[in-house]
Design brief:
Shape: globular
Bound molecules: adenosine-5'-diphosphate, magnesium ion
Largest sheet: 5 strands, antiparallel
């Protein structure tokens, strides 16, 4: 869904001071118009709350323009355009099936296929419309573009979007077979895609392969786990400040981890460069189905106000986070509260500090890492945004090291 962003006095952020903080919260940056990606298709003026906003006249046209297509294309054509050979199914969600592909140069890619616009229920849910999926396309593209060098806001912590296509047709036999292989090996909660009709539409997102999800990842020690947490904090802070971004579904299935030879990772946040050690691991954030950003003055978000199921589940801290978000936002999902990001970070820390299968548990490094996660977990919910957390724990370190360099 997209809707004109409301005046900032309706946002909910920064209502309380964090406990024991020694910093002041800086004024929001004015320099937000660095995006090179604007709406492409014919636009129309929309008036919301006495303010006029430019939006695409038809979501379908905007999607086609972003896909570089006039009309939906066949699966064969889409895979040929991506130069991708589909190898196996690697994941699934309520809306999408996810396949691993390889390219002729050996590069790995991932294709997420989401059926749209049809009347048939998919895994018990209504299919998304062009308008609903447009938000996810824009959010994916904007967050991916944060990796482009920019002194104000820069992070490569969000999955790289390589291509978006609009596809039509029956599921190819090969993909149905790969779906069945996955079902036999892991079991699937989804309906088989074999019965889609000839005129079924899909959006295919091609992204970089980001590794395996945090769910079940075996860390060497707690310092490595904390490094993943720190990478997520910094990526979130950049997007939060740049787009008033809230991920709103940052469970362990939506964080990917892979090995890296790069010793450091660099972030630009409000013009400040922050460098952290990777400890040989790289975290990537995926899945913006529930996310919210402000793009060209428009608020893109998923309206969960009438969803009942999402807020009733029990049994894991994850499900409590949806209820916490609802309370923080007072069920107004267009509003901005960066505290939703803080709640997800608290959940994440809770998961990381409960890991029991570290490979190396006796070293001082490991124990220090565990201690740090526990201490941070105790105070994290007293912050109102990820930016505040960064100012408190990361930016000051940079200032200190700058001071040392100047001495
Ligand atoms: N770029 C990627 N690299 C590696 N695995 C991925 C990638 N994208 C998705 N996956 C896998 O597929 C699963 C579902 O993808 P996701 O984008 O989260 O879809 P959904 O919105 O349906 O949850 C993820 O939990 C992850 O295991
Ligand atoms: Mg997911």
């Amino acid at each position: 869904m997209y809707q004109a962003a409301r005046p900032s006095n309706e946002t909910l952020h920064e209502t309380q001071r964090p406990f024991n903080s020694t910093f002041s919260v800086s004024a929001p940056s004015e320099a937000h118009d660095v995006s090179v990606h604007q709406f492409i298709a014919p636009l129309t003026w929309k008036t919301v709350a006495d303010q006029r906003y430019l939006c695409p006249k038809r979501s379908k046209d905007e999607i086609m323009a972003r896909c570089g297509q006039q009309q939906p294309i066949s699966f064969e054509q889409a895979l040929a355009n991506m130069e991708a050979t589909v190898e196996r199914k690697i994941g699934e969600g309520v809306y999408g099936e996810v396949f691993l592909c390889t390219k002729p140069n050996g590069m790995r890619s991932v294709v997420k296929l989401i059926p749209i616009e049809g009347s048939r229920l998919i895994n018990g849910e209504k299919q998304k419309t062009y308008e609903e999926i447009l938000s996810e396309i824009i959010i994916s593209s904007e967050l991916s573009n944060l990796r482009q060098q920019n002194v104000q806001f820069c992070t490569d912590g969000f999955v790289e979007l390589r291509c978006v296509s609009c596809v039509i047709g029956k599921y190819p036999q090969r993909l149905v077979e790969l779906w069945e292989d996955y079902n036999n090996q892991h079991g699937s909660e989804n309906d088989s895609p074999k019965d889609f009709s000839d005129d079924q539409l899909y959006i295919a997102f091609e992204t970089a392969f980001g590794g395996s999800d945090l769910d079940g990842f075996r860390f060497y020690n707690a310092q490595h786990a904390f490094s993943i947490f720190a990478q997520i904090v910094l990526a979130l802070a950049v997007a939060e400040k740049r787009y008033d971004f809230e991920h709103r579904d940052l469970h362990t299935g939506n964080i990917l981890i892979e090995g890296t030879k790069e010793p450091e990772r660099v972030y630009h946040l409000l013009g400040e460069e922050i460098v952290i050690k990777t400890h040989g691991l790289r975290a990537t954030i995926i899945d913006y189905t529930l996310s919210r950003i402000v793009y060209n003055g428009l608020c893109l978000y998923n309206d969960l106000s009438t969803d009942e199921e999402l807020f009733t589940a029990e049994g894991d801290y994850q499900f409590e986070i949806y209820r916490n978000m609802k309370a923080v936002l007072q069920n107004r999902w267009d509003l901005h509260s960066p505290r939703t990001n803080v709640h997800w970070l608290h959940y994440l820390l809770d998961k990381l500090k409960s890991v029991r299968n570290f490979r190396e548990k006796t070293s001082k490094t490991h124990k220090a890492g565990m201690r740090m996660m526990k201490q941070l977990s105790d105070v994290l919910l007293q912050f109102n945004s990820v930016h505040e957390i960064v100012q408190h724990y990361f930016a000051l370190e940079v200032e200190e090291s700058d001071k040392e360099n100047q001495m």
